[in-house]
Task: structure prediction
Amino acid sequence: MTDTENLVLWSFPTRVVFGGGAARQCGVEAVRLAGHRALLVADKGIEAAGLLHPIRSALDAAGIAHESVLDISSNPLESEVLGAARVYDTFKADIVIGVGGGSVLDVAKLVRLAVTHPAPLARYDDAIGGGEKIVGTLPPMIAIPTTAGTGSEVGRSGVVTIQATNRKTVIFSPLLIPDVAILDPGMTQTMPPSMSAATGMDALTHCVEAYCSSGDHPMADAIALGGIQLCHRSLRAAVEDGADLGARGDMLKAAMMGAVAFQKGLGACHSLAHPLSAELGMHHGLANAICLPAVLDFNRSVIPDRIAEIARHLGVRSDEANTLSFECAGAVRALRRVIGLPSDLRSQGIAESDLPRLAALAFADPCHNLNPRSCSQDDLLALYKACFDDA
Ligand SMILES: [Fe+2]
Result:
């Protein structure tokens, strides 16, 4: 066979350890990865919540020496990655353990790049094809998420603000994927309701956009639908009762599955969401929550069967595919409402006069390139307007 015109790549390399108390497996997993000296990357909030106690105890029990770096901000800087890399070198660490939300896990992933590749991090910017310069073997890593949204624990990118440009920069390479993700529902139970809601909607949006994105990826499609079903079953419960470990576990699974699925691609919702966070500081999950219904309605004409399938997995009941696809955006709005998230951009202090500038930035964002319906800048502006006063 010589025709490789339709060649596609499907892969899922991460070992995932799931369950109550799973965080205490980190010592065993570190030994399995031949680690002896661990750099723990977390932040002060994680430390204050007591979430590092079981990790440190497990490492002590496994005979793994450890040193911690806790100076990580919610929008991490290159200097924080390089500072952590210096600690890694000084401590003579041989494994990285990230404990935190998406930002912390991103820094932990990038420390492994910084200790094995020449500076500056700007060399590895995905926008200039920098991923090609990431080669060889990075130190092993264990990721232990304390939020359920980004799925960074199974993702292949890290986002950091580069000093030279002062811009949030995506560094992308399959080599950045952690070796092990440990999903312990107890590690997410201190998340407050608003954060549980917003991060959960990010997970749902990853699943929805991956399932809708163009491309042939049956594994990603099946995983995405499974993630949507978990969000339908447990997002509300996780928000209403943070101690509901069954719901917390479902949302950890959904977040991980969303990030596995979006190796297929994302879509227009993420292109709309990125400028809202970068320019106006809106939480990424909230930005997705506000924009997703309008994007579902926009895509309905080109992929009605897929939108109907999403509606089915969100609990909409009808024998009519048309009815299901029509009801899908409403199902997302209803979920958004019961978990207490706002429904429009106006209430977030955004001026209508900002929308054209934001639409230009959204058009420059690459995520919409895989949206099933192609988007012009005017389409993206119309979508922002549809979200401006959304009920
Ligand atoms: Fe996202």
Summary: The two ends are 54 Å apart (CA to CA). The chain has a mean pLDDT of 95.
